[in-house]
Amino acid sequence: MRSANNHPGEFRGDVMLDDRKMRVLYAIIDSYITTAEPIGSRTISKSFNLGVSSATIRNEMSDLEELGYLNKTHTSSGRVPSDKAYRLYVDSFIKLDNETINKKQKMEIRNALERESKELDQLIQNSARLLSHITSYTALALSPQIKETRIKHVQLLPIDEYQILLILVNENGLVKNTVFKTEQAIPENQLNAITNMLNERLRNISFNQLNKDSLKGMFNEFYKYKDEVERLIPIINKSVESMDSIDLYADGIGMLLNFPEYKDIDKVKSLMSFIEDKDQLMNILLMDSISRDINISIGQENIYAPLKECSIITATYKLEGETVGKIGIIGPTRMDYLRLIKTLRIFSDNISEIINNSNGSVKR
Amino acid sequence: MRSANNHPGEFRGDVMLDDRKMRVLYAIIDSYITTAEPIGSRTISKSFNLGVSSATIRNEMSDLEELGYLNKTHTSSGRVPSDKAYRLYVDSFIKLDNETINKKQKMEIRNALERESKELDQLIQNSARLLSHITSYTALALSPQIKETRIKHVQLLPIDEYQILLILVNENGLVKNTVFKTEQAIPENQLNAITNMLNERLRNISFNQLNKDSLKGMFNEFYKYKDEVERLIPIINKSVESMDSIDLYADGIGMLLNFPEYKDIDKVKSLMSFIEDKDQLMNILLMDSISRDINISIGQENIYAPLKECSIITATYKLEGETVGKIGIIGPTRMDYLRLIKTLRIFSDNISEIINNSNGSVKR
DNA sequence: TGTTAGCACTCCTCATCGCCGAGTGCTAAT
DNA sequence: ATTAGCACTCGGCGATGAGGAGTGCTAACA
To answer: With 0-12 CB in 10 A as exposed, 13-18 as middle and 19+ as buried, what is A278?
Structure first.
């Protein structure tokens, strides 16, 4: 016997639901989230003590269905929460901005992430993995978009006669590198000179700016290496262009199979292939990029057909106050929103802090 | 009506199979690989013209079952090839080392890989993705183990007062980087001096060597920066240690659901969670590392329980003649070995050539 | 007027049953 | 040695029916 959550009356959409309706609705949602079974009036009155009989609850449920908060699978089945119900449910605690973060759990996750992640990509990848393990849901993680940061260091290194390694480091210590080919060998000492030039000229230029401005004008005065530099410019430019590519990691795809809603192979097949198509998925994550720290997209709110029966929760992480990337969870609309949001908050906080090194929890 | 493959008589295991038994067996294997349905004597005699009646085939099948090449799902069902049958089948063409590589397909794959891959990790990741797309199987790819290559360049860069970025470049242009923290600030000019020292001392040292030798002795003479260097040494050493970590990529996990053998959720669940557990899977791929260019592990030959009904084909790729990594395919024992081996060969050749830049198909 | 008990009705789930067909194994004929 | 014939096996599948959870409606009640 558990008692229904005591959520405040709420108004949303058309009508303000009275307190009892809210309780009934939340009881149904809570029950359905844990059992995945349609629930009937009698079961509610037995499991949650709302102080009224099943007949009364039955009437309330009938009303709630008419208002669009409940669905039936067939005429004499139990009720199931609608997307609208989940939306109401989620909105009721998303704005509470619940601070009750479990400090201990946060530090555990923080330690695990820092311990296993040497490079940035690893951090993001491990975040997805750990998030999936902890939640038992499919986790998504988007690597940071670094366009707006500034160049700290440029280095050209010869690999062999016709190949040059370009290394770019930004102010946050993110490293990107590309090997490119030249048609004509460039002696090492000249390469060093060019490297020095590039460093002088490019330091503190943003990647974005580098991308946009033609570099040509910048180097006119260095006529000594003019030819080489001219040959390098388009290559560097192209490399830089390719550098701000974003990676998407999905982990725990198999977790989907644990949900009873995916006992049917065909349902899960289309969803999985959608998740594994990184391009499409990336679109979705980038789409609502103007949005809040926590973004939730429930069922039919999703645009792509394979996601119409899913929910996606995303959280942003920040670099120096700017949102640069996201992590998220995907699963059936009947997901444990409350717990997942809490966990996502912990992850996004941790990732932000790690990449900012804001709080110097020094390695012991 | 297709005719059975005309493979030569073969002896393997206990008994030498006569020519007709071979043909019957190969017919069953071919059929089962494409249909996934147990096949009966009558169907064989109709679909493959072996010139004998179904009764004769029935007798042969009975013999083949006794020899362990065929299994029945129940007393009056059709036959299914055993692991032993697949082993025979595979061995018959693996040693032919069939050169009939489709040049056109190879170049297409090569172009796709080079077009999309700027960094090494991307190349490996894209290989897995493309391999999975092309074959419609789950693809695996192991990033190269770079322990045995030599250091080409070392660079220390300050990120902020207490953080230093360490960049290591090897002779092949592979870049690894780590951010580490110091307890005491090091001025930039000192850092540059140390960088120069490190470069002088570490160039052409193998990662392995760096890992083993204590660096301490190396820098004794540089008393000017002795303190800083001493503080750096264990950090660098630890970073290097963490640098030769291998990554494993799995792509197309959802492809498993296309196979009728995985219409049962429970079967696919354990397999998927196994594949998503990178540590275990890595073990498997690294285990047979002494082996041939193409390695095939069929059904019960696999050690781990979730793989007992799977086959894994792996191919190696090389850097300067040395095997440094692997790509592979995982799927039901009833896999299209011939086609998959061919495709894997193409991929492993391409990856080897790209990372060696042996043939300079210059960007146009 | 809101709440509740009672009851008929709906419809899903699951187990049972029997038929059909593909396939085997054996025997006897060629 | 090969083949035709035949009895037998067994999984798959659709039909059938019982059981149960749940609804909606009506009438009684505080």
So the answer is: middle
Q: Which of residues 59 through 88 in chain B touch A, CB cutoff 8 A? A: none
Give residue A360's pLDDT.
Answer: 38
CA-nearest of B9, B63, B71, B15 to B39 is: B71
Q: Give A151-243's CATH code, choosing from 1.25.40.80, 3.40.50.1100, 3.30.160.250, 3.30.390.60.
A: 3.30.390.60
**Averages of pLDDT over each 10 residues, chain A, 364 residues:** 39 67 95 95 89 92 95 92 96 76 93 86 94 98 82 83 81 77 76 83 80 60 62 70 81 96 90 94 82 89 94 93 93 96 96 74 32
The answer to whether the Cβ–Cβ distance between A165 and B157 falls below 8 Å is no
Nearest CB neighbour to A167, from listed B160, B167, B172: B167
Q: Where in chain A is the domain with CATH 1.10.10.10?
A: 10-94
User: Which residue does chain B place closest to A136, by CA atoms?
Assistant: B273
Q: Which of B312, B258, B257 is nearest to B280 (CA)?
A: B312
**Is some CB atom of chain A closer than 8 A to the CB atom of B289?**
no
Phi, psi of A159 (to 5 degrees): -90, -55
Q: Which residue of A has its CA nearest to B240?
A: A118
Give span(s): CATH 3.30.450.40, chain A: 103-145+246-356
B-chain CB neighbours of A262 within 8 Å are 265
Residues contacting residue A223 through CB under 8 Å, at least 6 positions apart: none
Domain A103-145+246-356 has CATH 3.30.450.40: yes
Residues on chain A touching B121 (C-beta within 8 angstroms): 121
Residue B334 contacts residue B137 (beta carbons within 8 Å): no
Q: Which CATH architecture has domain B10-94?
A: Orthogonal Bundle (1.10)
Which residue does chain B place closest to A132, by CA atoms? Answer: B276
Q: Which two tokens stand for residue A277?
A: 């198509």
Interface with chain B: mutation pick from A191, A265, A266, A274, highest number of B CBs within 10 Å: A265
pTM of the model: 0.88
**Sign of the CA dihedral running A197, A201, A204, A210:** negative
Sign of dihedral through CA atoms A193, B185, B243, B151? Answer: positive
CB pair distance less than 8 Å for B177 and A119: yes
Q: Where in chain A is the domain with CATH 3.30.390.60?
A: 151-243
Q: What share of chain B is helix, strand, coil (3-state, %, to 5)?
A: 50, 20, 30
**Per-residue pLDDT tens for B170-196?**
877 777 777 777 777 777 887 888 888
Nearest to A159 among B173, B242, B258 (CB): B173
Q: Which DSSP state fits B304?
A: S
CA B203 – CA B211 distance, rounded (Å): 14
Rg, chain B, Cα only: 27
Strand D: protein residues, Cβ closer than 7 A: A 38-43, 54-55, 58, 61-62, 65, 72, 75-79; B 52-56, 59, 73-77
Report CA-CA distances (Å) from B266 to A254, A267, B53.
11, 15, 40
Chain D positions with an atom below 7 A of a protein C-beta are: 2-5, 8-11, 20-26
Among candidate residues A344, A342, A347, A339, the one with its CA nearest the CA of residue A329: A344
